[in-house]
Structures are given as structure tokens and as C-alpha cells.
């Protein structure tokens, strides 16, 4: 599954948004959506990216794919720095990474047939024409479990789960090595979520695609990921193998996160002593000066208020950004 | 434990241009004092429509309550909610039965302050004066865990976060110490840690106020942590009804089994494929005279296509509507 | 046991084979429910018909004067004859023919004017929305200024400066109506540009030209057609307004507005001189408005569903 060199290396990625406010646009507000994020993803593996709303996980996914221009940092894709590459090269490279969006109801142009939707990436990159194109669309539809007979229908004739499959087919149409899945199942019913997740797993095995699986669903991410990164307010606070993270979460925020997830097991739930995280997350407009979690961390010390901890490897393959673990 | 709400054979339909939507197809259940009943189902299962119909919150037309009784226990005796007029229902709503909606963004009036919305309810149902109501409102805001209630009182919904807005909704719902609170997916739109806060709050309130709760959800984890009993709905019908432990340990209906299997539990990656239920939720416009789940059921047999299964009691407090379990006692 | 039923049915509406005949039946059913809209459509078509086939429909030339037959009342009033069903005006010109020919001016001015307005407005609005930033501000500033002026006064002012001619009227309407198109287009383009499917196209590598032509323009059609129909109806009013104060097309061309102006003096003595052009204006505007309402309703899928 993992080869020596990572497929993607994200180095200190930053994305700030500059908003104007005040009467004459004088006050400049900086939203530090992504504030120094680094991780690697290897071929054929799934890295789960979890966090709650406002933590910057969606922005991270989009910035990696250069849908937003990064404010700082690098993204090395298969040895090429795609942040600083010219637009022509970037355009050609786009066949190798794609994205699946969250909302299956808004992500498909309602006026296009699904054949047109699925084949759009192929057409943009001038890869196939005519009969070959049709065959490829049929092949993709079969791959995601849709009957190719329905190629000429329109999005509103399909259910949410099927629309999500259409998006996946479209994303896979150009044979990418890497897929960013931005909350791909949040808008679906529970029974349909399982269908889509199973499909994604199958496809990963068949096609050796790597996934960045962005979600807030702590249970699903555990099922599908090999490794997981936890984000809070624009920074990664913990990064570990899936099992390690769930068995021994080190960062206080991760512990709260794990504890908050209700499991479908009534007896356990009744006995469980839950750690409740108090307060609300601060806004990314005014992040705390030191550690981003300082305002809500029960173990915070003065040091945490002044200096932001680095993401350090504490155990093999287990990184944490927390002063508690610095000796 | 006495029964505080008894619903029998509720049928709700919608008259639309494309046909009649059979949203709720004959459900019966009861709610006892102080207990928490969870209703589980996916979109189109009828869970929200059935609760809204009890309180007259469905726009009719196009909604139509075709039949059914909803006996609600008041001091003087039972009344049938479905037969009451608007005025009586609006007395009960907020007064004796509180309702918490799913989306706090749209359920709070954006041009009224938080304080106004809470006091409005208190004045309406408890007949207090404005000052008394304000005082009660401050107490309520504290009770639901909102810091600085005096400041928050004067704020507008847009100045509060999602979690806080939901707390305000809870405050409004429990302001008049209702006998029943119906909560329609109140934590679905919230982050996991905020959801945990709200659930914790709810458990506290439940203890101090002794209210019965109907909690609608599609999240089997939330249900496991809150419910005493569970109803599973599919295609506008109740397909299984059980105590919460029994439901998770011995699920009987194939849909329930599929739902529980579709939620990744404690298993880590790769150990088990999720059980996915093939197909999609049914089209409620097509009237059927067979089991609504037959299309998607892995255990379907010929007899499932011939009749609609009704709820049969399998053991104490565990009923299921499935022909596979016909041999048990007829309810 | 694997469920063999699942994939073949219940998955979606896909399996309902909707034949062409079914589709036609559905449209007819929708139209019948919107009988008022049909009414609007019929009105609209009758006016177009009148304008197009004017020479064949009218017994007289609209300009031919016959002072011996001047100021005749309509046929159903004592003194009138069916030779001149709507009577004649002070110069003996047949009212019926003038009304029919007047349709040409009203429709011509409003159609062509609307077309010009739409072209200019859509272009500017798209440019502003697409490029954004400074360009957006530069384009929208004068547009917002014009929109905040009282429209009729503005038009009157320009018309009085430029003088009376058919071309002038069309151009004036074309230019002065473009701001509303620009604003609506800009709003729609901004909205569509932020939509998820455009983002999806960008991530697939689409360039801005492709996005504009394939994704944005087709989704603009609905709101634009609606706006055009309402603007046409408005321009018919404005033309008659201009005509009434004598700033519309020259008096040699029969227009309803001109007819109103000429008949004003005889309002109490020969009321039909103003009544018929007034009715014609109302009739046409009503038709366009009903039609516009209907188009707006059917092109917005949300309202379409809610109209049940």
C-alpha cells in the first residue's frame, strides 16, 4: 500500500482569506482558514481529515488541488511542486487529481445529461472522442454501479446516492491517482452512505487511488481511513494510524472528539463517562496567539498561551502538536 | 407509569399535482410519562410528518389527516389532538407539548431578540407579566447553559452560534414545563462536540423536569445514548418497536439489521464491509399492498409480496412487522 | 438470498419510460391548469398577428384622411357605420386601421428595444460579474445611478433632446432599459459562478470561456426570458407615455401613444378617439404580463413544484 515516496507531500500549507470591512474598506480582516498544514499521502491509501465546522478541512482539500491559490507552503505531487508550476503544466496535471463534492444535489449542472457530466473532464483534456468516449462513459457507469442505459437522463431523475455515484464516475473519468472526497456522504441517508463508502473502498482496491477523506463523521472516517489527521482551527493537532488514534488519542482535543461520539451500543453508552468539551470554538478570524486549543483545553498552561506547539512525532507514526508531550 | 400519549392508526396523505403521497400509513404507538421514545428512520419514512400532524403543524391542504386518533392526557382526561381546532392546539403547543425543530437557523425569528422569543412563550402559556417572564427567561437561559444570560437576552439569533441557538430552542421548548417534548433531529446540524453538550444538557433537563420525550433521529448512536424505547419507521409505517437494548442486541426486522450494520461501530478499518442496503427509499406515491421493504430486503420471500405485514408482538415490549416473524403471538 | 428485484425497480424515476405522447399530455395538463396564462398567450399572439398581417386586416390605410367622414362614432353607436367599426378620428382616418397598425409600432419598439437592452445589459452584467473587482465597480456605478433615476423623466429628457423619430425611440428604450438587464444578469452570474457544479468544472480543468458558455449562459435563459417579457410590456406603456406628451414617433406613424395625444382634446366630445388606443395598450400589456408571469413560474423549478 505505501511506497517509499509519498504521492503527495503537503508542506506548511497556508490559506488566508482577506476580507474588507469598515466603512470604506479600511479595516482588513484576515481569516486564517489553513495555517501551516503538513502531511503526506501515499499511493493507494486513505488519509482521513477530520474536524468540526470551521476547522479548515474543506479549505485544505481545495487548496491542495489548487482550487484556491495557497497563501504559502508547497504541495509536491509525484515530485512536482504544483503550487509554483505554470498554469499550462498544472492544467495537464489536473487529470491526476480530482475532487468529489459534498452536495450531490448542487454539484451536477441540472441542464446537462449525465453522459455530458461524466465526460466533461475527458473532453476538457481532449482525451477521447466519439465512440471511444461513449464506451468510456459506459465503462465508468458500470464501475460505480449505474446502468449505462441511463446515460442520457438528467440529474433530477436520480436519487441522492446515485448522483453521488455520478460524481465519483466523473472524478474517475481521467484515471486520477488521487481523489479529494469532501464530505461525500454527509448529505445522504444512512443506508445509502454505506453503499457509497463500500463503493469507494472497492474502487480504491481496483484502481489504487489515494483518497483524502474529509469528514466530520468520526465513525465513518475510522472505517475507511488508514491514517487520520485531526484539524482544529486551521492546524493539524494530531496525525496517526487509524487504530492508534482511536486507541490512544493523545491530543486533548482528539480525546474530547472521541468521547463525544455516541456509539450504537446502548449498554456501553449508559455506562460511559463522557468528557464534555465546554465552550465554543474561537473564530478563525481571531485565533489565539499560542496553541489554537488554549481557550478550551483543561490542561492548558501559560506556555500554551504564548507559543504554538509544533507537530512532533511522539511515537512511531504518531504525531501530536501539544506542549504536554514535549520533554 | 401512565400513558401520556396514545396514537392509533394515524394516516396522513398529501394531495399534490402529481398524485397522492402516502406519507404516513397507519402507525400506532404510545408514550409513557417520563420516558424517552426515539423514532428512527431515513428521509421519507414519515417520522417528521407524523409528529407535525399531531400538533397541527402541517399545512393542510395539501396535507390531509385521513384517519387516526392521538389521545393526549390532560388533567381532565384524554383529548384527541387530531380533532382539536387551531386555538386549542396552539394552547397546547409550547404549553403542554414543546417542539424542538431541526434547524435552529430557520426556526428562530431573525428579527426578534432571543429574549423576546422566550418571553413570548412564557407570557402566552403561563400568563405571567412581562417582568416575571423576563426573570424566568434569565433562569431558563442559565438552565440551558448559556453564559451571560443578561447579555444574550438582548441579542439576535444571528449573533449566536449554532449550538447556542439550539440551546435557545430547547429553552423555548421547555419554558412552560411541558409534559412532552418532541425533538426533530435537534443535533443533526451540529458539530460532534456541540452535539455531546446538547445531549448532556438534555439528559439533565430530562431528570429535573420529568418530561416525556419523542426524539426523532437517523443517528443510531444518538438514539443509543438517549432512548428508552425505539420505533423504527420505513415507508410511512412502523416496522419495529422495542426497548433500546433489545433493538441493538436482537434486531428483528431486516431493515433494522441493515441500519445497524450500516453504521461503523467499534470495528476498525477493513475488518468488515459495511452492510449496505441496496436500492433507495420507496416512492410514497405508489400505493402498495405488499411489504414496503420487499424491494430491498435480503430475506424477501414470496409471501412478502402478497400482503402488508402488521406489527406482531414477539416478546415483551418488542414488536415487528415482518412476515419472517409471523409465527409469534398475534398482537 | 440476493434480492433480484432491487436494481430493476424502485431505484428512481428512471424506469418510468416517459413517451413523447406522455410529455405532450403533461404540458397540455400544465397549460390547462394555468388557464390564465393561456389567456395571456392568446392575447399576445393576437397582437402579433394583428401587427404582422395589418395590411390584410384593415380596410383602409391608416394615414388616408377623409374629412367628409371625420369624427364618426363607432359602429354600434347612433351615427356610426360598419364601414368604420371603431369610428374615425378628427382627420377622418379609420380608427380600426390605425389601432391595428399601431400594434406594429408598439410591438416593434418594445421588441427591438428589449432586444437591444438585453444585449447591452447581459454583456455588461456578465463582464462585471465575471471579472469582478474594479471592473465590476466601474461598470455598475453608472448603471446603479441610472436605475435610481425616475425612469420616465429620464427618458423624456433624452427624447426631448434627440427629437422624434422611430429609430430614436427604439435606441432610447434600448439603452435606458439595459441597466435592469445588467443588474439581473450580474446577480445571476454571480450566483451561478459560486455554485457547486461550476466549482466542479473548474476542478476538472475547465477554463473560464468554457464555464461561461457551457455552464453559465444556459442557466441564464430562464430569468432573462422572464425579464424580457416584463420589459416588453413596460415599454409598451412607456411608448404610449412618450407619445402622449408628443415625444414618441412622428405623427406620420400611427402609434397608440400618438393617438392618445391627438384624441386628448376631444376627450369629452369624441371619447372613442382615446378609448380605443387606451384599451389596446391595456390589452397588450395585460397579455405580456400574464405571459411573463407564466414563463417565470415554469422556468423556476421550485415554484413549478409549489404551484400545486
Q: What does this molecule look like?
A:
The complex is a heterotrimer of chains A (327), B (331) and C (308). Chain A is of the alpha/beta class. Chain A is built from eleven helices and twelve strands. In chain A, the strands form two sheets. Chain A has an eight-stranded mixed sheet with strand order 6-7-8-3-9-10-12-11, with helices on both faces. Chain A has a four-stranded antiparallel sheet with strand order 2-1-4-5. In chain A, strand 11 (312-315) and strand 12 form a beta hairpin. The model of chain A has no long low-confidence stretch (mean pLDDT 89). Chain B has helices at residues 47-54, 86-92, 104-107, 114-126, 130-143, 149-153, 162-174, 192-209, 220-226, 244-249, 254-262, and strands at 3-16, 19-32, 36-40, 63-74, 77-80, 97-100, 180-184, 212-217, 229-234, 237-243, 312-315, 318-320. Chain B has an eight-stranded mixed sheet, with helices on both faces. Chain B has a four-stranded antiparallel sheet with strand order 2-1-4-5, with helices on one face. In chain B, strand 11 (312-315) and strand 12 form a beta hairpin. Chain C is mostly helical and 308 residues long. Helices cover 70% and strands 0% of the residues of chain C. Chain C has helices at residues 20-33, 35-52, 54-57, 95-131, 133-148, 151-162, 166-193, 196-203, 208-244, 256-263, 272-299, 301-306. Chain C is flat and about 75 Å long. The relative contact order of chain C is 0.13. Chains in contact: A-B, A-C, B-C. The A-C interface holds A 65, 67, 91, 94-95, 98-99, 101, 103, 106-111, 120-121, 124-125, 147, 150, 153, 156-159, 162, 167, 170, 174 and C 7, 11-14, 195-197, 199-206, 210, 215, 218-219, 301.
Q: SSE layout and pairings?
A:
The complex is a heterotrimer of chains A (327), B (331) and C (308).
Chain A: E1 8-21, E2 27-41, E3 46-50, H1 57-64, E4 72-77, E5 80-81, H2 87-93, E6 97-100, H3 114-124, H4 130-143, H5 160-172, E7 178-182, H6 190-207, E8 210-215, H7 218-224, E9 227-232, E10 235-241, H8 242-247, H9 252-260, H10 266-271, H11 302-306, E11 312-315, E12 318-320
Parallel strand pairs in A: 3-8, 3-9, 6-7, 7-8
Antiparallel strand pairs in A: 1-2, 1-4, 4-5, 9-10, 10-12, 11-12
Chain B: E1 3-16, E2 19-32, E3 36-40, H1 47-54, E4 63-74, E5 77-80, H2 86-92, E6 97-100, H3 104-107, H4 114-126, H5 130-143, H6 149-153, H7 162-174, E7 180-184, H8 192-209, E8 212-217, H9 220-226, E9 229-234, E10 237-243, H10 244-249, H11 254-262, E11 312-315, E12 318-320
Parallel strand pairs in B: 3-8, 3-9, 6-7, 7-8
Antiparallel strand pairs in B: 1-2, 1-4, 4-5, 9-10, 10-12, 11-12
Helix pairs in contact in B: 4-5, 7-8
Chain C: H1 20-33, H2 35-52, H3 54-57, H4 95-131, H5 133-148, H6 151-162, H7 166-193, H8 196-203, H9 208-244, H10 256-263, H11 272-299, H12 301-306
Helix pairs in contact in C: 2-4, 2-11, 4-5, 4-7, 4-9, 4-11, 5-7, 6-7, 7-9, 8-9, 9-10, 9-11, 10-11
Amino acid at each position: 500500500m505505501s511506497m517509499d515516496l509519498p504521492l503527495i507531500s503537503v508542506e506548511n500549507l497556508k490559506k488566508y482569506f482577506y476580507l474588507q470591512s469598515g466603512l470604506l474598506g479600511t479595516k482588513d480582516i484576515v481569516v486564517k482558514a489553513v495555517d501551516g498544514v503538513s502531511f503526506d499521502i501515499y499511493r493507494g491509501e486513505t488519509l482521513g481529515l477530520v474536524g468540526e465546522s470551521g476547522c479548515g478541512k474543506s479549505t485544505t482539500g481545495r487548496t491542495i488541488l489548487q482550487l484556491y491559490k495557497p497563501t504559502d507552503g508547497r504541495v509536491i505531487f509525484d515530485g512536482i511542486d504544483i503550487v509554483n508550476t505554470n498554469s499550462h503544466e498544472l492544467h495537464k496535471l489536473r487529470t491526476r487529481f480530482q475532487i468529489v463534492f459534498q452536495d450531490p444535489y448542487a454539484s451536477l449542472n441540472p441542464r446537462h445529461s449525465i453522459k455530458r457530466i461524466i465526460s466533461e473532464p475527458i473532453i476538457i483534456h481532449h482525451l477521447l472522442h466519439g465512440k471511444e468516449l461513449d464506451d468510456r462513459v459506459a465503462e465508468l457507469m458500470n464501475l460505480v454501479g449505474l446502468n449505462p442505459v441511463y446515460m442520457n437522463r438528467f440529474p433530477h431523475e436520480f436519487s441522492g446516492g446515485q448522483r453521488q455515484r455520478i460524481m465519483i464516475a466523473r472524478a474517475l473519468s481521467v484515471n486520477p491517482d488521487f481523489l479529494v472526497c469532501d464530505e461525500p456522504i454527509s448529505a445522504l441517508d444512512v443506508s445509502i452512505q454505506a453503499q457509497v463508502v463500500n463503493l469507494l473502498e472497492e474502487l480504491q482496491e481496483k484502481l489504487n487511488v489515494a483518497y483524502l477523506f474529509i469528514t466530520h463523521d468520526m465513525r465513518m472516517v475510522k472505517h475507511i481511513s488508514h491514517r487520520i489527521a485531526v484539524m482544529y482551527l486551521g492546524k493539524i493537532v494530531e496525525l496517526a494510524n487509524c487504530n492508534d488514534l482511536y486507541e490512544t488519542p493523545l491530543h486533548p482535543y482528539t480525546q474530547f472528539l472521541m468521547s463525544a461520539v455516541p456509539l450504537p451500543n446502548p449498554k456501553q453508552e449508559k455506562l460511559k463517562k463522557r468528557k464534555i468539551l465546554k465552550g465554543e470554538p474561537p473564530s478563525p478570524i481571531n485565533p489565539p496567539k499560542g496553541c489554537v486549543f488554549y481557550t478550551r483545553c483543561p490542561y492548558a498552561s501559560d506556555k500554551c498561551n504564548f507559543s504554538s506547539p509544533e507537530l512532533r512525532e511522539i511515537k512511531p507514526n504518531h504525531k501530536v502538536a501539544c506542549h504536554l508531550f514535549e520533554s | 407509569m401512565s400513558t401520556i400519549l396514545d396514537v392509533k392508526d394515524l394516516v396522513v396523505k398529501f394531495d399534490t399535482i402529481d398524485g397522492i403521497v402516502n406519507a404516513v400509513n397507519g402507525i400506532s404507538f404510545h408514550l409513557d410519562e417520563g420516558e424517552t421514545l426515539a423514532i428512527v428512520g431515513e428521509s421519507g419514512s414519515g417520522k417528521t410528518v407524523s409528529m407535525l400532524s399531531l400538533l397541527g403543524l402541517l399545512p393542510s391542504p395539501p396535507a390531509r389527516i385521513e384517519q387516526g386518533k392521538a389521545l393526549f392526557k390532560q388533567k381532565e382526561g384524554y383529548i384527541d389532538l387530531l380533532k382539536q381546532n387551531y386555538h386549542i392546539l396552539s394552547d397546547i403547543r409550547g404549553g403542554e407539548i414543546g417542539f424542538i425543530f431541526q434547524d435552529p437557523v430557520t426556526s428562530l425569528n431573525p428579527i426578534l431578540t432571543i429574549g423576546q422569543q422566550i418571553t413570548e412563550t412564557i407570557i402566552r402559556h403561563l400568563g405571567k407579566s412581562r417582568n416575571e417572564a423576563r426573570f424566568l427567561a434569565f433562569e431558563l437561559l442559565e438552565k440551558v447553559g448559556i453564559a451571560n444570560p443578561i447579555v444574550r437576552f438582548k441579542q439576535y439569533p444571528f449573533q449566536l452560534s449554532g449550538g447556542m441557538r439550539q440551546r435557545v430552542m430547547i429553552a423555548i421548548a421547555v419554558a412552560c414545563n411541558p409534559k412532552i417534548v418532541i425533538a426533530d433531529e435537534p443535533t443533526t446540524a451540529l458539530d460532534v462536540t456541540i452535539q455531546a453538550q446538547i445531549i448532556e444538557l438534555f439528559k439533565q433537563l430530562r431528570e429535573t423536569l420529568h418530561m416525556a420525550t419523542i426524539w426523532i433521529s437517523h443517528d443510531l448512536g444518538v438514539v443509543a445514548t438517549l432512548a428508552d424505547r425505539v420505533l423504527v419507521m420505513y415507508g410511512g409505517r412502523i416496522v419495529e418497536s422495542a426497548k433500546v437494548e433489545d433493538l441493538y442486541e436482537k434486531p428483528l426486522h431486516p431493515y433494522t439489521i441493515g441500519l445497524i450494520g450500516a453504521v461503523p461501530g467499534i470495528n476498525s478499518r477493513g475488518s468488515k464491509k459495511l452492510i449496505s442496503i441496496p436500492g433507495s427509499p420507496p416512492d410514497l406515491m405508489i400505493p402498495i399492498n405488499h411489504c414496503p421493504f420487499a424491494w430491498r430486503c435480503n430475506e424477501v420471500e414470496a409471501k412478502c409480496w402478497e400482503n402488508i405485514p402488521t406489527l406482531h408482538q414477539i416478546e415483551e415490549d418488542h414488536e415487528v412487522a415482518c412476515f419472517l416473524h409471523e409465527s409469534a403471538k398475534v398482537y | 438470498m440476493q434480492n433480484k428485484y432491487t436494481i430493476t425497480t424502485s431505484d428512481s424515476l428512471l424506469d418510468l419510460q416517459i413517451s413523447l405522447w406522455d410529455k405532450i399530455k403533461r404540458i397540455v395538463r400544465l397549460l390547462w391548469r394555468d388557464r390564465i396564462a393561456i389567456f395571456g398567450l392568446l392575447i399576445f399572439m393576437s397582437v402579433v398577428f394583428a401587427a404582422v398581417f395589418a395590411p390584410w386586416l384593415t380596410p383602409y390605410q391608416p394615414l388616408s384622411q377623409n374629412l367628409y367622414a371625420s369624427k364618426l362614432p363607432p359602429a354600434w353607436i347612433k351615427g356610426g357605420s360598419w364601414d368604420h367599426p371603431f369610428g374615425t378620428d378628427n382627420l377622418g382616418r379609420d380608427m380600426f386601421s390605425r389601432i391595428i397598425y399601431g400594434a406594429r409600432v408598439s410591438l416593434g419598439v418594445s421588441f427591438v428595444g428589449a432586444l437591444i437592452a438585453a444585449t447591452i445589459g447581459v454583456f455588461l452584467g456578465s463582464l462585471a460579474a465575471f471579472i469582478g473587482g474594479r471592473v465590476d465597480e466601474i461598470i455598475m456605478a453608472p448603471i446603479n445611478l441610472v436605475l435610481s433615476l425616475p425612469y420616465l423623466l429620464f427618458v423624456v429628457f433624452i427624447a426631448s433632446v434627440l427629437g422624434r423619430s422611430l429609430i430614436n425611440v427604439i435606441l432610447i428604450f434600448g439603452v435606458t432599459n439595459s441597466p435592469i438587464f445588467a443588474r439581473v444578469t450580474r446577480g445571476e452570474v454571480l450566483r451561478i459562478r459560486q455554485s457547486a457544479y461550476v466549482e466542479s468544472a473548474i476542478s476538472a480543468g475547465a477554463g473560464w470561456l468554457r464555464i461561461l458558455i457551457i455552464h453559465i449562459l444556459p442557466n441564464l435563459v430562464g430569468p432573462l426570458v422572464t425579464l424580457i417579457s416584463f420589459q416588453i410590456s413596460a415599454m409598451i406603456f412607456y411608448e404610449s407615455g412618450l407619445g402622449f406628451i408628443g415625444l414618441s414617433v412622428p405623427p406620420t406613424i400611427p402609434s397608440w401613444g400618438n393617438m392618445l395625444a391627438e384624441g386628448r382634446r376631444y376627450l369629452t366630445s369624441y371619447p372613442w378617439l382615446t378609448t380605443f388606443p387606451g384599451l389596446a395598450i391595456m390589452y397588450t400589456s395585460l397579455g405580456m404580463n400574464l405571459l411573463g408571469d407564466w414563463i417565470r413560474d415554469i422556468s423556476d423549478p421550485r415554484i413549478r413544484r409549489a404551484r400545486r
